[in-house]
Design goal:
The chain is built from eleven helices and six strands. By secondary structure, it is an alpha+beta fold. Helix 2 runs antiparallel to helix 3. 35% of the residues are buried.
Length: 295
């Protein structure tokens, strides 16, 4: 990346810092002073550092410029407006592709990002501000899965993302229609992204053993022919209770959500082998709220 590109990234991050600081100060009365001092100080320190770094951005640990925003997202003292703007800052960093899979400590940074966003806590001021934060959470988690570094995520990280989105889908049932539609769309997109990643996997002995074990428990899912019997020319499909549905046939969000809710098997053809991955959204993960309406 040339000097102008590096300067543009520095300006972008500086702009996000300024936006977050403005909201923090505007909501100072709702914010705990002790946390405010330390978290605001970390943002100011980052603003001084971001223009002082001389090395290329792919040689800079992403946690150095992400952590101040992640600390705000995780803080129990954070109000909804502050959580919202901090999530927007993280989303913009991901969208700008400031770092990639070759960046030093990229895997650790993505893990920290997932941990922070899936453990987002904020004080609920009013229903509308809560819904805005939940939509921002969905936006960031989907951006994480679509980011070039998503291949560095561990199985646990992906489970955190999946289950947190699923929890928002459940919560949205009592919220506004916009949040409901956003949650369903995000869940649908994450399922599609997961399938896209499966096509990049290489067969392994462990995968074959997992498939054989799954077949012994679900004898109706016994071959790839079932996938084509449903009228699809694609080798990917979803299976639950022995019924295989080609991925392309899942056009309705409700179908995908039903599969997610009950726990489902992802069946994917990799090379000449079929692999089954069980996804069980049973973890008590997701968005924890404090203040009014807290869990």
């Amino acid at each position: 990346m040339d000097a102008s590109g590096s300067g543009a990234i520095a300006c972008m991050i500086n702009g996000e810092i300024g936006t977050v600081l403005a909201v923090v100060r505007r909501n100072a009365r709702r914010y705990l002073a002790s946390d405010d001092d330390s978290l605001e100080h970390s943002l100011k320190s980052l603003r001084r550092s971001v223009f002082a770094w001389r090395q290329p951005w792919n040689e800079i640990d992403p946690s150095l410029y992400l952590q101040p925003f992640l600390d705000l997202i995780c803080s129990t003292a954070t109000s909804a407006p502050i959580a919202s703007v901090a999530l927007s800052a993280v989303y913009n960093v991901l969208s700008f592709e400031v770092f990639d899979a070759k960046t030093v400590h990229a895997a650790e940074a993505m893990h920290s990002l997932v941990e922070a966003v899936t453990n987002c806590e904020f004080k609920v001021i009013d229903p509308s501000s809560e819904e805005v934060v939940l939509m921002k959470v969905l936006q960031v988690l989907l951006a994480v899965m679509k980011h070039s570094t998503s291949k560095l995520l561990s199985d646990r990280d992906i489970a955190l993302v999946f289950n947190s989105c699923f929890r928002v889908v459940q919560q949205s049932a009592t919220k506004g229609e916009i949040l409901q539609r956003t949650a369903r769309h995000s869940m649908h997109e994450i399922v599609r992204v997961l399938f896209a990643h499966l096509s990049q996997l290489r067969p392994s002995h462990k995968d074959s053993s997992m498939y054989d074990s799954a077949l012994s428990q679900h004898p109706d899912v016994d071959s790839g022919a079932e996938l084509h019997a449903e009228g699809s020319n694609h080798s990917n499909g979803l299976s639950i209770n022995g019924i295989v549905a080609p991925l392309d046939s899942l056009t309705e969000d409700e179908e995908v959500l039903k599969l997610c809710e009950e726990g489902f098997l992802i069946v994917a053809k990799v090379a000449s082998s079929y692999h089954v991955v069980e996804v069980q959204p049973a973890f008590e993960l997701g968005i924890r709220r404090t203040g009014n309406g807290a869990h």
